[in-house]
Amino acid sequence: LQEITEDNTWNTLQYASTRPLTVQTLSTGTTTALDFRMAALPRTAPVEKSWFSQVSFVGDSLTQGMQMYDTGLPGAMFCAYRGVGPNANVLGTDSDYTSFLTYYRLMLDMITQALPGTPVYVQSITPVRPEVAAKKGHEGLNRDRLCRINDELAAVALEKNCSFLNLWEVLADENGDLKAEYAQPDGYHLKPEGYTAWVDYLCSHTAG
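Given the sequence above, the corresponding structure tokens read:
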């Protein structure tokens, strides 16, 4: 996994992305993007935290917290560090987030080819506090844009036969912002309490 996610020689120039999934409206006949909330894996019978001892997480600094905090899943395996994989801090500045989605598709292909038959879960981008988008270099991290990216990410997950997990169910408040009680001062990293909610969600959303 580390070799796959650290490889910065990915060639996306010849990588043809497939048609994004859409949902057709009945009233006008037009199509709209898939709502990521509808694509999420439904609630299942909960498992114990020990279930994750055979699970590997690939991610960035938010995923690092899952490894660092006792309220996370320190017993799982991790390939997580700042700026890993398809994100590489591009979401705050990439206006159309095409490169993010292209790299994400390619990363999923590389992982599934290297680990055939392994169940893969795609987790939604987590919500942030509303003041985050006001910071220079983070303008793209506004609530509405993150929802649109999650719509596309859910479609990619279904396209690649992966399970999609909607972390907003437990991390977002009624306005779609990261709950204040879970937010670190920077507005997007999580306090230990946030990982408690995240882990509870993961334990009750497993496929098979």
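The radius of gyration is 17 Å. Try to locate this feature in the token string yourself.
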